[in-house]
Design a protein that fits this description.
Elements (H helix, E strand, L loop, with lengths): L8 E2 L2 E2 H9 L7 E4 L9 E4 L6 H12 L4 E5 L8 H8 L7 E4 L10 E5 H13 L6 H6 L2 E4 L20 H10 L6
Parallel strand pairs: 3-4, 6-8
Antiparallel strand pairs: 1-2, 5-7, 6-7
Helix pairs in contact: 2-4
């Protein structure tokens, strides 16, 4: 992207503010996994224990500092997630160690999921120490409730929940399409 994605603005809010708003229906404790160069007065910055380990390292960092039984982990570049999505995921936790949605294209979304801390943190540590880098490996290693897109498609904005902002083109497209999406 060439810039800090968390600070990009859509509809007058940064991407991280948009994600925070969506998470607010299930938690009041939100932290940002990042690095010291990300200045913020709004969020506590959590540093990776396993630096340069990518998404699984960031997921591990989030789980490491969570004081609750469950953690909602969401990439800041998914700005169209909603409170209703997280409520649906949270209502599906019973007897599972993780809850993960599956996109319309059948790809699981490990960076928009819920994780039970005790089993998932120890498994994430084990995976990292074995050389694994993919966050999907964590979901494949614990008892995961997979939520198909069909189970989410009735929610307003579902077609855009997993629109990922990775490139300047993605960002421009998201801004131009925003008028068609729920606010």
């Amino acid at each position: 992207m060439g810039t800090d994605k968390a600070a990009l603005i859509i509809d007058g809010q940064t991407l991280i503010q948009r994600v925070t708003t969506a998470l607010s229906s299930i938690t009041s404790s939100i932290r940002l996994v990042g690095n010291k160069s990300q200045p913020t007065d709004e969020f506590q910055i959590v540093l990776d224990r396993y630096e340069q380990w990518g998404a699984l390292g960031g997921l591990h960092a989030a789980l490491s500092v969570c004081g609750a039984e469950w953690a909602a982990v969401v990439a800041c570049d998914l700005p169209f997630v909603t409170s209703e999505l997280f409520e649906r995921l949270a209502n599906s936790r019973e007897d599972f160690e993780a809850v993960a949605p599956i996109q319309r294209d059948k790809i699981p979304q490990p960076l928009c999921s819920l994780y039970r801390i005790d089993p998932c943190l120890s498994k994430a540590t084990e995976l990292i120490e074995s050389g694994e880098r993919r966050p999907i490996a964590l979901l494949q290693s614990v008892r995961t409730r997979w939520i198909s897109f069909d189970q989410l498609s009735d929610l307003e904005g579902a077609d855009h929940f997993f629109d990922n902002i990775n490139t300047p083109e993605d960002y421009m497209r998201a801004q131009s399409e925003r008028s068609q999406l729920p606010r």
